[in-house]
Specification:
The chain has 2 helices and 8 strands. The protein has a 4-stranded mixed sheet. It is globular. The N and C termini lie far apart (35 Å).
């Protein structure tokens, strides 16, 4: 991936108060794996490295996805919406899990037929990976 797209392919961080929602989608299957936020630093770091970087709103810092767990996201392509205020990262999820709960997708809870259920098993035990 060319690390620096043309200047007309840039999110409008100023318009959104500095943070842009970023959806991580499996490049091969189209499955939505997670939603996070990017600031300009995360955007530039993602372009530079080819790995997804986000801004952690809870920790208030740059976050390299998979930096602790090894479950990195290799960016295959980036889509920017018409208003420049939302991003879709088409990624290859290394290690099989995008969610800190140990599941493939952060969207592992489903409402269907009048019932709530877990619709994705754990791929790893977060207590073993994060050692809090």
């Amino acid at each position: 991936m060319n690390p620096f797209p043309p200047t007309d392919f840039r999110p409008d961080f100023a318009k959104c108060g500095g943070l842009i929602p970023a959806v991580a989608q499996d490049d091969a299957t189209g499955e939505v794996l997670m939603l996070a936020y990017m600031n300009e630093e995360a955007w530039l770091k993602t372009l530079e490295t080819g790995d997804a970087h986000y801004y952690s709103r809870s920790r208030r810092e740059l976050w390299h996805k998979g930096g602790t767990s090894g479950m990195v996201q290799k960016v295959r392509s980036i889509r920017l919406d018409c208003d420049g205020d939302a991003i879709v990262l088409r990624i290859e999820q290394i290690g099989g899990a995008a969610c800190h709960t140990g599941r493939r997708s952060c969207f592992y809870r489903e409402w269907k037929d009048g019932k709530a259920a877990v619709c994705a098993p754990q791929v790893f035990n977060p207590d073993d990976v994060y050692k809090k």
